[in-house]
Write a structure and sequence with these properties.
By secondary structure, this protein is an alpha/beta fold. Helices cover about 40% and strands about 15% of the residues.
């Protein structure tokens, strides 16, 4: 992903969903390499209220305005799943990387369309499955690596 000259990845958030605080706001604040730069919501006043609550510098009352913001490098789509493909594709077409709340799309055709646009534009499209990146997951992986949790005793596969 490309970043601005100061090395920060500037993320725009589509939607004022409660899940976004845990899914993108707090992780961006902890990262040191990313910041939530803009918030957009369609309900009048919702974006401004969310931005004020979370210290986000820009608030928009349309998703189009956030996507058009040249200061935004990537867009986090925290909308209902029925809107993921439409707004993910619009952000990709505008040259923004996209991190999309799960599920990525409503069906395989929508997902293929999103992937096609991302590939054509040379951008990152990622579903927001945080388990692999969560600090607890890294801690457990390290403990397994160190042998601190014992050996795996998973099911044995039969050769039949």
């Amino acid at each position: 992903m490309t970043k601005k000259g100061d090395g920060m990845l500037r993320i725009g958030l589509l939607g004022a969903a409660n899940i976004a605080a845990r899914s993108i706001v707090q992780p961006a604040q902890r990262s040191g390499g990313a910041e939530l730069a803009a918030e957009a919501a369609r309900r009048p006043g919702a974006a401004a209220a969310y931005a004020a609550q979370h210290g986000v510098p820009a608030a928009y009352e349309s998703y189009e305005a956030l996507i058009a913001d040249p200061e935004v490098d990537a867009v986090y789509v925290a909308l209902p799943p029925t809107d993921h493909a439409q707004w993910g594709i619009r952000a990709l077409e505008a040259g923004k990387h996209v991190l999309c709340e799960k599920t990525l799309a409503m069906n395989a055709d929508e997902a293929r369309s999103m992937v096609s646009v991302a590939e054509r534009r040379g951008l990152v499209l990622m579903e927001a499955l945080h388990d692999s990146y969560h600090p607890v997951q890294r801690h457990v992986a390290k403990r397994i690596e160190d042998g601190a949790l014992g050996r795996s005793r998973g099911p044995r596969l039969s050769s039949a």
